[in-house]
Amino acid sequence: MKSLGTLLVSALMSQALAFSSIKPTISKATLDSSSLFSTPQNEFEPESSSTSSTSLSRRSALSKSAQALATLLVADTVSSSPAFADISYPFTSPKTILITGSNSGIGFDAAERMAKQGHTIILACRSFFKANTAATQISEKLNDPSLKLIPKECDLANLKSVQKLIDDLVADNIKLDALCLNAGIARNTAAKDVARTEQGFELTIGTNHLGHFYLTNQILNNSLLKDGGNIVVTASGVHDPDSPGGAQGSKATLGSLQGLEKAVADGTGQFDMVDGNEFDPDKSYKDSKLCNVFFMRELQKRLDESGKGIKAVAFNPGLIVGTGLFRDQNPIFTRIFDFAATDLLKVGENTHWGGGALEYLTLDSNAIGKGGLYYTSPPGSSKYGDAAFGNQFTITDVSKEAMDSAKGKRLWELSEKLVGL
Ligand SMILES: NC(=O)c1ccc[n+]([C@@H]2O[C@H](COP(=O)([O-])OP(=O)(O)OC[C@H]3O[C@@H](n4cnc5c(N)ncnc54)[C@H](OP(=O)(O)O)[C@@H]3O)[C@@H](O)[C@H]2O)c1
């Protein structure tokens, strides 16, 4: 069994090797959780981001690691103090913005940023208690009695809870200017059991994709999003197996959607993996992020047909080990990796950066009004602070698979059947 130290060096090396071949301006360079916590067999073995997974010997790996680390430590991507000078996005009237998963991480930070500017934030969280606690924390931190924070329950792993939110919004006559589909879950990559949502869907796809799919459709079906409004999806670079993060561990692919096809055909609605294969938690997370990108692109097509001027985009916030996304992974390793990736190598981003990315796509006049797009930035871009948004953090290609419009359409149709729309 490998010691923790060996694992850390190997993992860092693996990441560093991926980074060392990246020029700071390459826009498809992305990383996130799944690359760090893959299954023990392949987890810490260095892997080329563009070729198949040939393992290096430890000696040559360590030598390459040292080179990569040296490169990183002198590279332009390294900075000791990220500069954040929160941007004020001008607006004529305050907006009403719903954010899923806003009690933690990126969503919480974005909620705080946008509430601070005078917008009404609907904190849509797993439970009312969590939403209310988040609202209280933001109020106390900003110490501003004029803040408009509305806590709501929205458990994406239970479509009845999502429907209750819809009913509440209708009853309260709330009209949204923006919808941020941000919540997400990543299970321990060593998990063997298939956890399920209330409706029996595999938990990761059920939460990250199908819960948001149902929420968005019901918001649109009930005209709860204003014409000209915008939808922002927190996706990930790991949706793309050709990205450095997506190339580590299991690779995202929906195959021919056999798992969903079967679940719909047999009427059970139960699937373990979208592609019909055996359960793989690492892949399931990456697949869910691929679903997010497929969903955003197909959604935009349908929105264009509706003529309501609503725009949908997706983004990759980069590697942010400090959020709650890693809570089911080994806590010691997560803490060490957070320090190494964020503080030492400066290839990770921080939570405030992630919240800023979500805020930028929700409020910036250069970003809103454009749809069907995917945004990302090179690793370590949070060193530029908020100035990176619209600069390093900008429009990028989605993965080859995500460009398959026919698959996106079929995923939509199957998702409709699964959630009962
Ligand atoms: N951190 C990264 O490196 C990274 C990289 C790329 C993409 N992302 C994406 O960024 C998004 C935000 O994640 P984060 O990094 O900020 O992690 P986080 O701190 O764990 O936030 C995730 C949020 O999603 C919520 N959530 C999970 N399951 C839910 C459910 N069934 N119903 C309602 N809410 C649920 C969580 O609520 P609870 O607290 O109640 O669980 C939490 O508020 C996710 O979509 C993630 O995939 C993150």
TrEMBL record:
Keywords: Chlorophyll biosynthesis, NADP, Oxidoreductase, Photosynthesis, Signal. Gene3D superfamilies: NAD(P)-binding Rossmann-like Domain. Its EC number is 1.3.1.33. GO terms for molecular function: protochlorophyllide reductase activity. InterPro entries: NAD(P)-bd_dom_sf, Prochl_reduct, SDR_fam. Pathway: Porphyrin-containing compound metabolism; chlorophyll biosynthesis. Pfam families: adh_short. Transmembrane segments: none annotated. Residues 1-18 form the signal peptide. It comes from the Eukaryota. GO terms for biological process: chlorophyll biosynthetic process; photosynthesis. It is an enzyme of class 1 (oxidoreductase). Belongs to the short-chain dehydrogenases/reductases (SDR) family. POR subfamily. This is protochlorophyllide reductase. It comes from Chaetoceros tenuissimus.
